[in-house]
Structures are given as C-alpha cells and as structure tokens.
Amino acid sequence: MEQTKQLQDSFMPEKFRVLSGSALKVLAMVIMLIDHTAAFLLVKSASATRTLFVLGGTDISIYRIMRDVGRAAFPIFCFLLVEGFVHTHNRFKYGRNLLIFACISEISWDLVHKGTFFDMSTQNVFFTLFLGYLAFCAVDYYKDNQLMQLICMAVLFAVSWNLHADYSYRGYVFLLIMYWLKEKKAAQAVIGTSWLIYEWKACFAFLSINMYNGQRGFIKGKWAKYFFYVFYPAHILILFLIRRMLYQM
C-alpha cells in the first residue's frame, strides 16, 4: 500500500516511470564516476579545465560540466537509502553494512584527499548516509514519542556537524527531508532542491527519482548487492592510482 501511494504521488506520468531500483543504482554510480573523475583526476588537466565558453559570467569547461552533472548523484543515493530502509528485512544488517563500508572507504578517501592512509579532518559520504540511516531508525522506533525523535535527530545532527563527512550536516538534513517527504514527491523535489540550492544542479536528480517504477530490477543476489558497496572505495582508489601515475601526486 505504501509503495503504491509513493508511486501514485510521482509527478511523472506513468508511462515515463521506467527506471527500476537497479537502474537508479547504475545511473547514480555512473554520475558519481563522472563527478569523481573530474574532481580527482581532470582537475589537474589543462585541456579539461580550459574554458570552452562563458555562461552567465561562469567559465564553462569540460571539468565544470562533469562536476555539474555529478551533483545529481547524491540525491539519487539518498532516495535509494530511504527505499532500502523502508523495504529491508533486516535494518540492523543494513546499517551495519553502511558502517563497515564507511570505514573501508575511508582508506581510499584519505589517500585521494590527503595522500595518507589515515586522516581525521574529513570523512567519506558513507558516514553521512549512515547517520541519516540512524535517524530514520530513531524516527521510526520513537514514532509515538516526538520528544525522543527530536533528541535523537539533534544528537545525530551535532555528530554530522562535527564529523566533516562529505556533504556534512547539509547532507544529513537532506536525508531527513527525503525521508519525511517520501510520499510527497513534488514537495520532496521542491524542498530538497531549496535545501541544496548552493548546488542547484542536484535538482535534475528528481527527474530520474520520479521515473522510478517501484521494481527492484536486475540486481539480485548477495554478490551483486555488495558490488555496489565495493564500487565506491574501489573507484576512488583506482582514480587515485591513475592520478599518481600521471601527475606523481
């Protein structure tokens, strides 16, 4: 019933709802790869950063285009996290996997950002997703106690503020917006975009989110599922190694 209500609330006509959960995962991964290739690799390329044209006073380059395209990845991953929370059969195991891969991904993240295996000044986006997931669990567990909901969300907000994970507290609040408005897709798109207005290109993610058809899709089985966890730290490590070979840094 809840799934049907969410699908009916989509602002996309039914004939355009052609993306399964698996298709959204692949799309988000490709967009993330485009973004990170620019951020971690092409930022050092003179040809990629050369201005192609000027639009509204902003220099547009291949690098800029790829980074702007990449803004759509995070909202899609947040949407998928909400879907995962709603439909998982084991919330503890789901959260445990997020935390495990947050710790694993930190090695690649620190290497690409700081050139070291361990640095506490910044953390990867898995930690932001994990804090959001904990907030979902708290809100659902204390659904009859608003005070406890507020206390849990406030504590997790403070953690997200001080943790310096990717997207920081803005990402944490965005996850709450996606969760609270999961059955109101138009409001979700408007309020979510407004919250991420500093990265307004992210609004295009809501087009694909509203093309979701409610189907799981072609990704089935444990190994296929874990591939999408592994992809995050693996692709960052590969980009780091390529950058080291090309630019000795």
UniProtKB/TrEMBL annotation:
InterPro entries: TraX. It comes from the Bacteria. The chain crosses the membrane at residues 22-43, 69-88, 124-142, 148-165, 186-211, 223-242. Keywords: Membrane, Transmembrane, Transmembrane helix. This is Conjugal transfer protein TraX.
